[in-house]
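Morning - SN-glycerol-3-phosphate inputs below, output right after.
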Amino acid sequence: MESKILKIGHRGAKGHLTENTLESIKKALSLKVDGIEIDVHRCASGQLVVFHDFTVDRITNGTGEVAKHTLKSLKSLKTKGTYQIPSLAEVLALVDNKSLLNIELKGQDTAKEAARIITFYVDKKGWEYENILVSSFQEGLLETIHKINDKIPLAVLTDRNLGRAVEFAKTINAVGIHADYTMLTEEIVTELKEEFKVFAFTVNNLNPLARIKSYGVDGIISDYPDRI
Ligand code: G3P
Ligand code: CA
């Protein structure tokens, strides 16, 4: 029997509502996703905030680096669609262990605080480690998480070098390889699946969706998770 392919909403449900907002995440949940992917940065007051870019310029009415704004300052901004930038704590409270949460460490210096808050939500708020997946393109951030709490499931992101991703993934006991879908063939997926869960990102159009599904990946990350 074919195993189920997890439907993961990219930045919430980016194709439907402004990315990485609580509203976009609620939309993804309403589309019955198996998981939600979000990006995090550390802001000037120390909290992790859910945001993709390194600056706020593209999708808010503010300017400047996310890392140089305090949480209060980021909260005063409006995103496209007039939503707020959420903190990671708000997202953990909203999702509340009801689906997989794939937290991509995007910004510098995000690992320690991510490990702390995830451990807290597991120990005190009913989250289970199996519903958390921390991914990053940055090896150092994943290494730090692994050193602080090796129970946190990790995935290595790659958009250029699968061999390198695999070798590094072994050193941190990563459970997954998350690959740009354009790098994948059926043979590559079959080989990767001998050791890892394989997620493909970011697959939005119907033809590539059908092709990637036929390879038997474990999960697909899409702006339109309802198309998977
Ligand atoms: O996690 C997969 C994907 O989100 C990585 O690329 O640029 O959309 O964060 P990006
Ligand atoms: Ca991402």
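Note: The chain has one domain: 6-41+48-54+86-227.

O.
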